[in-house]
């Protein structure tokens, strides 16, 4: 069986417009279970929009999204969560007045996780939130809020996890640590899409990257090959993320 | 002991016992009745505003709908009062269903649209063309069911159920999910919460308690005009009481009603000329200095307030 037939998510010719502007302009790619796929591209290239469409926040204006063999484009977010998709947000969005523990409890109760539910204690421990477990999420710093977004997502037992700039703002030691965590999740069979500007981090954890520009894929392959591709270099050249 | 049992034992039970016994020792039964009605309405506001963030400026619409649901059943079908009260609740829920599209609005737009809706219902009920059904602007007189004692105890029962509902919200994943929707609807949907369903349930629950309160009010007073049971004062008072004590808590709205409605009656009886002035200043001070209500005085010190 080819990897593509084995895919848990298949996106074909996806289009998303805002007014007349094409934020996604015929994007196609797939992910297989256990894979960590990097989604990179300059600011405004449509990475977050792709995540928003796949997670049901926006309905696509064209093309198809198929998750686990069933069409999922335009399906309400909470239903997709129950089917096994979850995500984090570029700007973290916890429930600010609820405690960290309560934030996770909502997802445990409503996330539709099947089998043995994940344990709150473990999630708190694994993502370094134990000390702040009973504080309101508003008291957390931005990195901790991102971890809280992640634990909320994991509490629903996703099979496809979309991470939107989870690593931005972390220090090198934290980056190593979270890279290990993400790899461990993929090792359980979870498919993970990582949007990130930090190329070192992408290099460390991804098997394959898709390079996006103006809502279109301009490259697919390993990051090592991508950085030798003239078209990719041109898109990033002079951009703030050329390093 | 689980928190929910503590809340039932130390908040709900004393409240019910006190209001069940007070008529035996205190003569002004109408005042007691009004306290109970405002306890119900303030908790109804708490359910929709405290737990979902929708400020129901036209909350009285449900109360009036309940009162007229009661009156119509009694006048035209000679329904026994308790059953007519239930119908009042159902009528309010039906109105709530009709108004669910308002939940698409947010903030001030929702509040204003809800206010407009309550005025529309008032003018519908008070329309002389409906005299045959509602008695239009001429008001209703329900001498057949008049029984303030029974009506009072019915109000205490509905108050107990309403406070019980809020205790449930404070202690259940369901209430937590409602608060999650209030905090961030997008994130709530990513926690698997069906945000539309949750909002509608909270909205209808708050409509139900106001409708039951309205039905009981009609039972108690037995003679009233549309302007009485659709008076904007019910909405404003219930909202101010709930906010003053502190919403999204069990005790906040109770404390708010006991203190503010207490003050209202004290000033109103002795020096009515200063009432508007003092009350107005109190509300301004509250909004400026205590936006999260009286209970926030305690929570700021790190005390947990149920
Ligand atoms: N809700 C929206 N309404 C209008 N335009 C939008 C909306 N969301 C995104 N866009 C536009 O679509 C384009 C793609 O945005 P998107 O957020 O997907 O980029 P991105 O690749 O995630 O960028 P960044 O790296 O800065 O996060 C941008 O031009 C953005 O302004
Ligand atoms: Mg983005």
From TrEMBL, chain A:
GO molecular function: ATP binding
The keyword Nucleotide-binding appears for this protein: yes
Organism listed in the record: Bradyrhizobium elkanii
SUPFAM superfamilies in the record: P-loop containing nucleoside triphosphate hydrolases (SSF52540)
Gene3D superfamilies: P-loop containing nucleotide triphosphate hydrolases
Role played: Involved in beta-(1-->2)glucan export. Transmembrane domains (TMD) form a pore in the inner membrane and the ATP-binding domain (NBD) is responsible for energy generation.
Protein name as it appears in the record: Branched-chain amino acid transport system ATP-binding protein
Signal peptide: none
Keywords, in A-Z order: ATP-binding, Nucleotide-binding, Transport
Residue stretches making up the ABC transporter domain: 9-239
Keyword Nucleotide-binding annotated: yes
């Amino acid at each position: 069986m080819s990897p593509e037939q084995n895919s848990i998510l298949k996106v074909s010719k996806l289009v998303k417009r805002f007014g007349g502007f094409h934020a996604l302009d015929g994007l196609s790619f797939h992910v297989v279970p256990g894979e960590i796929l990097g989604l990179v591209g300059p600011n405004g290239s449509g990475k977050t929009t792709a995540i928003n469409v796949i997670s049901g926040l926006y309905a696509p204006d064209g093309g198809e999204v198929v998750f686990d063999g069933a069409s999922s484009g335009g399906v309400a977010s909470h239903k997709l969560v129950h089917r096994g998709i979850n995500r984090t947000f570029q700007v973290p969005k916890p429930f600010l007045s609820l405690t960290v523990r309560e934030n996770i409890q909502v997802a445990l109760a409503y996330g539709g996780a099947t089998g043995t539910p994940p344990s709150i204690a473990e999630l708190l421990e694994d993502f370094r939130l134990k000390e702040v477990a009973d504080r309101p999420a508003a008291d957390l710093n931005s990195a901790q809020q991102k971890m809280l977004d992640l634990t909320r997502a994991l509490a629903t037992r996703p099979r496809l996890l979309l991470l939107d700039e989870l690593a931005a703002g972390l220090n090198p030691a934290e980056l190593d640590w979270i890279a290990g965590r993400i790899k461990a999740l993929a090792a359980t069979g979870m498919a993970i899409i990582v949007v990130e500007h930090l190329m070192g981090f992408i290099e460390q954890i991804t098997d394959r990257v898709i390079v996006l520009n103006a809502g279109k894929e301009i490259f697919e392959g390993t990051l090592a090959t991508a950085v030798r591709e003239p078209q990719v270099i041109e898109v990033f050249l002079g951009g703030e993320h050329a390093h | 002991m689980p928190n929910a049992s503590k809340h039932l034992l130390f908040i709900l039970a004393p409240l019910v016992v006190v209001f069940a016994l007070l008529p035996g020792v205190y003569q002004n039964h109408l005042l007691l009745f009004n306290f109970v009605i405002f306890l119900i309405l303030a908790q109804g506001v708490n359910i929709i505003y405290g737990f979902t963030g929708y400020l129901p400026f036209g909350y009285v619409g449900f109360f009036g709908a309940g009162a007229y649901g009661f009156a119509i059943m009694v006048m035209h079908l000679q329904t026994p009062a308790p059953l007519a009260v239930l119908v009042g609740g159902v009528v309010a829920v039906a109105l709530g269903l009709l108004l669910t599209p308002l939940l698409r609005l947010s903030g001030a737009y929702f509040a204003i649209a809800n206010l407009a809706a309550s005025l529309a219902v008032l003018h519908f009920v008070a329309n002389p063309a409906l005299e045959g059904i509602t008695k239009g602007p001429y008001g209703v007189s329900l001498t057949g069911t008049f029984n303030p004692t029974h009506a009072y105890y019915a109000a205490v029962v509905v108050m107990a159920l309403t406070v019980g509902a809020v205790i449930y919200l404070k202690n259940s994943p369901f209430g937590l999910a409602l608060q999650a929707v209030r905090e961030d609807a997008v994130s709530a949907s990513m926690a698997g919460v069906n945000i539309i369903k949750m909002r509608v349930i909270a909205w209808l629950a708050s409509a139900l308690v106001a409708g039951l309160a309205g039905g009981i009010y009609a039972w108690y007073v037995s003679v009233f005009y549309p302007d009485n049971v659709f008076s904007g004062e019910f909405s404003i008072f219930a909202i101010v009481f709930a906010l003053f004590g502190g919403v999204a808590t069990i005790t906040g709205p109770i404390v708010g009603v006991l203190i503010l409605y207490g003050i209202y009656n004290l000033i109103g009886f002795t020096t009515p000329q200063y009432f508007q002035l003092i009350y107005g200043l109190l509300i301004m001070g509250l909004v400026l200095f205590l936006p999260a209500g009286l209970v926030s005085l305690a929570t700021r010190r790190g005390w947990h307030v149920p």
